[in-house]
Design goal:
binds S-adenosylmethionine; 7 strands; seven-stranded mixed beta sheet
């Protein structure tokens, strides 16, 4: 495993951004206590920033867990924007629903249980697609949902450096899956792609072609 960012740099940036939203803090505590993988607060802030810049009308999130990343997206949405949270685990989605109902963001969210590759296909004109499902499914996910993307959509994928394993050439299913996905996104004529080496790597791809 490779340290993607020097822990001292992470600590420094974290120190610049103390969080005061009690629901975010509660979810961070829950994730830490249960070992559940959420995007961290620095990635959360990046998602927030990108959403404010993009001003999407429709965000679809594949792999919502209990709603931490979705909550960052929803906070940044304008009043006319909507986020669809999708997870295969009923328990995760009901926890997410509870978190959102304790906030003023509930009306911006739709909650779906099921296989994200199937459910996301029901939405046309997706302005921002976030992928955070099982890692070997990333390429299938983007292939399945590409026709549903709006013109100039933004695709964001978490864990695109997968603990550095992609750079070490590891051959397990998840590493190979992420590597294939990264290579596809960088070589595609339909997207302009980069990776921000923050936490576990955040892939950003801008859709160049019209839908
Ligand atoms: C890393 S967690 C998501 C964390 C969340 N994005 C966050 O940062 O708060 C991955 C989630 O994806 C879900 N998942 C994995 N494969 C899936 C699939 N094919 N369809 C729907 N959900 C999936 C898992 O149940 C798990 O809750």
């Amino acid at each position: 495993m490779i340290e993607i960012t020097d822990p001292r740099i992470d600590k420094y940036i974290m120190g610049l951004a103390p969080e005061s939203d009690s629901l975010l803090l509660e979810m961070e505590k829950k994730a830490k206590a249960s070992g559940f993988p959420i995007v961290d607060p620095l990635v959360g802030r990046l998602l927030y920033l990108l959403t404010r810049l993009k001003q999407p009308a429709l965000i679809v999130e594949m792999g919502s867990g209990f709603g931490y990343s979705a909550y960052w997206f929803a906070k940044a949405l304008s009043i006319r924007g909507k986020i669809v949270l999708i997870d295969k685990e009923e328990a995760h989605i009901s926890h997410a629903r509870k978190v959102f109902s304790d906030s003023d963001l509930f009306d911006r969210a739709e909650f779906r249980v099921g296989d994200a590759l199937q459910v996301a296909r029901e939405y046309q004109g997706i302005d921002l697609l976030f992928i955070d499902i099982d890692k070997h499914q990333y390429l299938d996910a983007v292939m399945a949902i590409a026709p549903m993307l709006a013109k100039n959509a933004l695709v964001i994928a978490d864990n695109s450096l997968w603990h550095g394993n992609v750079a070490e050439g590891m051959t397990d299913r998840d590493t190979v899956g992420i590597d294939k996905f990264n290579r596809h996104m960088f070589s595609s004529n339909d997207f302009f792609t980069s990776i921000v080496p923050l936490r576990d790597g955040v892939l950003l791809a801008y859709k160049l072609t019209e839908s």
